[in-house]
């Protein structure tokens, strides 16, 4: 009976972790460039061990938390510093401890003229350097589909301030989720510079979270959690009855 109780307990804990993951996805349904996370379950015992040692009872846990890098819908904003990557690729930004990767493209200029993410991380060019816009006689800033940032002065003269670096990653499973919508790349991961990227300027890529799908998963997980909770209560009631029987006579 104890084995069955712990089996139900591990199932309840796993479902609780799953619901927390779904809640995080739902909280970011409107976050620009957010990539949803999914969990998979696994049994702790296999084959002969489950039959011989656990008498058919098994234990459950979260096997892994996987990020889904499918593209989100692209919506037009009209902001010249908003940009979305068409198909595969990531923007590179300078994080507190090194280079990070993101699909979030709602960029801004700080007071020093440095192109940054909305949460203050410098956007990197093809050579991993920040992109700075000179402020002298600047009247307009444009970005083309290749990521070339041009400055047009008051006389109509154009000069290139930098080229936004767009890279692909050989194995996205080597990307670790960091703060906001950023990811770090494992040491054995490899990036490749995209020579001719296609940027949709004046638009942003929204979250790839499907609210209807996540709500359905939430309801299913909640019902499963409640089932495990009822099983645990049943075991608790049985234990109490056993104690009462043991005290007779």
How would you portray this structure in words?
The protein has 2 domains: 2-69 and 209-246, no CATH class; 74-205, no CATH class. It is built from 3 helices and 17 strands. 27% of the residues lie in helices and 29% in strands. It is α+β, with helices and mostly antiparallel strands and 249 residues long. The strands form 7 sheets. It has a 4-stranded antiparallel sheet, with no helix packed on it. Helix 1 packs antiparallel against helix 3.
What is the compact description of this entry?
With 249 residues, this protein is an alpha+beta fold. It is 27% helix and 29% strand. The protein has 3 helices and 17 strands.
Topology:
Blueprint: H1 2-27, E1 37-43, H2 47-52, E2 60-67, E3 74-76, E4 83-85, E5 90-95, E6 98-102, E7 108-109, E8 115-116, E9 138-143, E10 148-153, E11 158-163, E12 166-169, E13 175-177, E14 183-185, E15 191-193, E16 199-201, E17 203-205, H3 211-246
Antiparallel strand pairs: 1-2, 3-17, 4-16, 5-6, 5-12, 7-8, 9-10, 10-11, 12-15, 13-14
* Overall strand count: 17
Could you tell me the strand content as a percent range?
25-35%
Q: What is the helix content?
A: 25-40%
Mean pLDDT: 82
The spatial strand order of the largest sheet comes to 6-5-12-15
Rounded radius of gyration (Å)? 26 Å
The dominant shape is: elongated
Q: Structural class from helices and strands?
A: alpha+beta
Low-confidence stretches: 48-52, 54-58
Distance between the termini: 24 Å
- Along the chain, the helix and strand elements come as HEHEEEEEEEEEEEEEEEEH
Total tally of structural domains: 2
